[in-house]
Amino acid sequence: MLAWATVVPALVQAQSASHGQQLVESRCFACHSLDANRVGPALRGVVGRKAGKAPDYVYSDALAAATFTWDATRIKAWLTDPEQVVPGQRMNYRVDLAQDREDVVAYLSTLSAAPRQ
C-alpha cells in the first residue's frame, strides 16, 4: 500500500507538467515550437542547454554571449523578466503568475533533448 506522502507529490508534479504543457502550447507556440526554430528557438531540451546555443538559431548578441546553462531557477527568472536575466535580449514576453512559471518549467523539464520519432 502506497502512503499518501509518496503519491501526492508525484500527482502534483504530473498535474503541474500537464498544466505547463497547456500553457506552453497556448502562450509560447506563437513564437516557439518544440523541435523547430521559429521566431524563438526550439524548446525541446532547453533545460540543460547552454544559453544562446541552440543549433541553427540566430540569437541577439546579448544572449549569444551568455555563459550560463538553463536550469529550472534560471528559466523561472527568465519567464519573470527576461531583460533582468539577460539585458539586451529580444524576448518581450513575461509569465505573470508564479505558479504558471513553475508549471511551464515542470513541463519543459520533461522534454528530452532528442526529438520524438
Keywords:
mainly alpha, 117 residues, Cytochrome Bc1 Complex, Chain D, domain 2, globular
Please explain how this structure is put together.
This protein is mostly helical and 117 residues long. It has a single domain, classed as Cytochrome Bc1 Complex, Chain D, domain 2, CATH 1.10.760. 47% of the residues lie in helices and 0% in strands. It has five helices and no strands. Helix 1 packs across helix 5. The longest helix has 25 residues. The radius of gyration is 15 Å and the shape is globular. The mean pLDDT is 88.
Write a concise synopsis of the structure shown.
With 117 residues, this protein is an all-alpha fold.
What's the CATH topology name? Answer: Cytochrome Bc1 Complex, Chain D, domain 2
Q: How much of the sequence is in beta strands?
A: under 5%
Under CATH, the homologous superfamily reads Cytochrome c-like domain
Residue windows where pLDDT falls under 50 for at least 5 positions: none
What's the tally of helices?
A: 5
Shape: globular
Name the CATH architecture.
Answer: Orthogonal Bundle
Q: Which structural category fits the helices and strands?
A: mainly alpha
Q: What is the β-strand count? A: 0
Through-space gap between termini: 37 Å
Please compute the radius of gyration using only Cα atoms: 15 Å
Helix content: 40-55%
- Calculate the mean pLDDT score and round it: 88
